[in-house]
Amino acid sequence: MPKMKVLKFGGTSVGSAENIRKVKEIVKSQSDDAVVVVSALGGITDKILNAAKMAILGTDYFNTELTAIRERHEAVVEQLFEGERKEEVKEQVSQLLDELERVIIGVSMIGELTDKTLDKIGGFGERLSSYIISEFIEEASWIDSSKLIKTDSNYGKAQVNFSLTNTLIKAALGEFKGVCIAPGFVASNAEGEYTTLGRGGSDYTAAIYAAALDVSVLEIWTDVDGFMTADPRVISKAYVIESLSYAEAMELSHFGAKVIYPPTILPVYKKGIPTYIKNTMNPQAPGSLITSSQANGKDHPIKGISSISNISLITVQGLGMVGVTGISMRLFSALALQNINVILISQASSENSISIAVDTAKAGVAEHAIRAEFEREIQNGRINKVEVESDLSIVAIVGENMKHSTGIAGKLFNTIGKNGVNIIAIAQGASELNISWVVKNSDLRKTLNVVHESFFLSENVEVNVFLLGIGLVGGNLLNQIQQQQEKLLKQNHLKIKLVGVANSRKMLLDREGISIEGFKERLDAEGLSSGLPAYKDAIIDMNIYNSVFVDCTASNDSPIVYADLLNANVSIVTANKVAASSDYDNYKKLKSIAQKKGVKFLFETNVGAGLPIINTLNDLVNSGDKILKIEAVLSGTLNFIFNTIAADVPLSKTIQLAKEQGYSEPDPRIDLSGIDVVRKLLILVRESGYKIEKEDVKINTFIPDEYFNGSIDDFWANISKVDADFEKRRQVLEAENKCWRFVAKYENGHSEVGLQEVAQGHPFFDLQGSNNLVMFTSERYNEFPMIIKGYGAGAAVTAAGVFADIIRVSNI
Ligand code: ADP
Ligand code: ASP
Ligand code: MG
């Protein structure tokens, strides 16, 4: 004996002739008898209700809406039918549309639109669609749901009288064989007047039929592959949940998962009817199954995340509420009397405040009702505050498995907090099926992203990069990221996504990601004119999760924005030494903001480019070692100069060569003055845990001061004057088998930089080319200091160091 099924097709599924053809195929492929519930053509209910609202406002715009509604239906009929049938169907559709038009014109003339009229109008979309589809599926019959589903007169969202409804449905369809098309959403009250089941209510219609007929299965056909871990319009990485329990589906839909209208679950749950969510556009996909059996969810403690935006939080506060019974009862009764749905409740155990979340559209009425109910308490001060906060959203995570896992709330709020999102209220039921919390509307997207990522895609972490500076280092960095991207994703499950890029003139931001290939052309074509403050503001406004600002400039100005960015929970990776070598207080401030906010402030490349110097130092200090002495050759430029100097290559020539070969700054005096080395030493000493300012470092210059005071042209014109003296000294040095190194040193609170004569056998002696070398003498590395040595300059190694720091940010 064939069993019976109920299938429901939503607005998109019946939104075009092409999709209605798919519906027909799906219906025809069924071997069971079936009741097929259909929604209005997608978007039509909105248009109908809008036309009515326009009509009452006295504008003629309703005519435009009516015309559009007519054209949509006519076009569908035109494409689905042929010949005489087409004319017949057209005629019927036209009559229904005429009827709709008459009611709406009536509204515009009388200037009155009651909820009752609105319900009469609202159901036209389903009446039209169900008629068209029942004609298109030749062997199908049609039944009027509004005659079978009986409700009270709560127009707009009527309550079903189940005993009467079940009897009527069983009488009409109990013995039914074949396919019967029924409009969703529509119902009627005891007087036979039209009512509706609430927006999105066709799902509910289907569940009501399913339960009344005790069918074997309910199928909700829509435009996505199933019930997903999050709203796919917000979270592109959301994926289909294979199976979920009635309770999970109920919670997720209650908290905003639009894929199913929340009241739908109860009737099928009571009868234990398995319910599938399937995709009309992709019928082969398995879909999601909602049943009573325990959630699978072996991999994840939670099933999904959902959210409702535009809610308001009303907080009632007063010391006089503590220990007084009946306050909650009065509060909720007052709200119930106004038909206000409370979405979330949060009460501290001290009972001195209670917060409830309601739809913002209802917040005014709710506040008024509460103030009226507690008028006396407000007057005598037992309640001292009724406060409404708006522009908020509720987010909920749902899953039966939460019951068996610990640490979920901890992980949840930790992740959210690290991303700088403030949590305004929290609620968790004792059933542990759901944790919900309130955030600002403007933080919603970010919250959903971080939570989805940390609970579902823990194997794939995404880091969002905002790059500043696309010169040599920035350019190299992008190339390296591009080359490594695939491998990082595969092996480290790390996705580095470029979401912002700026040079001194232009900036480009795109939360969906900027392809590295061709980014320059895009920056030129689409980039907005930039400037540091504008770029910073745009980054903060974007409020994107796991984000990192990467400074690949040598600009004195860019570090000015670091504090604001860190405060907005954006990590910073910088190749720019200015910040870490600025005033000690500023350096300290940046580090402490980063620590407080749980983000990173990394500058490994500030000393020794790509060499792992600062990280090594941090590891030593963090693990309890104490740095006693630092000796380092930190200037690639100066090392090149003192490696090149020879009888036939005087000092002035080496400076010129350093410049020509790209080892020095455009004005080589910046290197020669030792200032750059001082900055690096400051950073090393600070990272060793000591307080030091620039002025505390003694600089022993090897070129007289006068060369630094004049213009750069004067410098080039005169520098050869030092050659003779240097050559004399060099010969002495050579005879003693020694060489010069420009050394930075710290010991016992004393820091200095300057030229040092180094004898053969010393680790500095054999330092080739422009290499760097750092020696740490510590309590642990005492007799033999720790040595780190290698290329200490160059765009490629610096970019690699920056890249490594970006990867480090992902490990938060
Ligand atoms: P129908 O018209 O078929 O009733 P709806 O638009 O009411 O379809 O519901 C389906 C839509 O719900 C999807 O297109 C999707 O954008 C949205 N949605 C929100 N949350 C979820 C979720 N968790 N899983 C699947 N879809 C969701
Ligand atoms: N057509 C109705 C609406 O748009 C009901 C539904 O589609 O479920 O709300
Ligand atoms: Mg729907």
Automatic annotation (TrEMBL):
Domain ACT, residue spans: 316-397
Matching InterPro entries: AceGlu_kinase-like_sf (IPR036393), ACT-like_dom_sf (IPR045865), ACT_Aspartokinase (IPR054352), ACT_dom (IPR002912), AK-HD (IPR049638), Asp/Glu/Uridylate_kinase (IPR001048), Asp/hSer_DH_NAD-bd (IPR005106), Asp_kinase (IPR001341)
Cofactor: a metal cation
Gene Ontology process terms (BP): homoserine biosynthetic process; lysine biosynthetic process via diaminopimelate; methionine biosynthetic process; threonine biosynthetic process
Key words of the record: Amino-acid biosynthesis, ATP-binding, Kinase, Lysine biosynthesis, Metal-binding, Methionine biosynthesis, Multifunctional enzyme, NAD, NADP, Nucleotide-binding, Oxidoreductase, Sodium, Threonine biosynthesis, Transferase
Catalysed reactions, semicolon-separated: L-homoserine + NAD(+) = L-aspartate 4-semialdehyde + NADH + H(+); L-homoserine + NADP(+) = L-aspartate 4-semialdehyde + NADPH + H(+); L-aspartate + ATP = 4-phospho-L-aspartate + ADP
Pathway: Amino-acid biosynthesis; L-methionine biosynthesis via de novo pathway; L-homoserine from L-aspartate: step 1/3; Amino-acid biosynthesis; L-threonine biosynthesis; L-threonine from L-aspartate: step 3/5; Amino-acid biosynthesis; L-lysine biosynthesis via DAP pathway; (S)-tetrahydrodipicolinate from L-aspartate: step 1/4; Amino-acid biosynthesis; L-methionine biosynthesis via de novo pathway; L-homoserine from L-aspartate: step 3/3
PROSITE patterns membership: ACT, ASPARTOKINASE, HOMOSER_DHGENASE
GO MF terms held by the record: aspartate kinase activity; ATP binding; homoserine dehydrogenase activity; metal ion binding; NADP binding
Function noted in UniProt: Bifunctional aspartate kinase and homoserine dehydrogenase that catalyzes the first and the third steps toward the synthesis of lysine, methionine and threonine from aspartate.
Subunit-structure text: Homotetramer.
Family that this chain belongs to: In the C-terminal section; belongs to the homoserine dehydrogenase family. In the N-terminal section; belongs to the aspartokinase family.
Designated name of the protein: Aspartate kinase
Provenance organism: Mangrovibacterium diazotrophicum
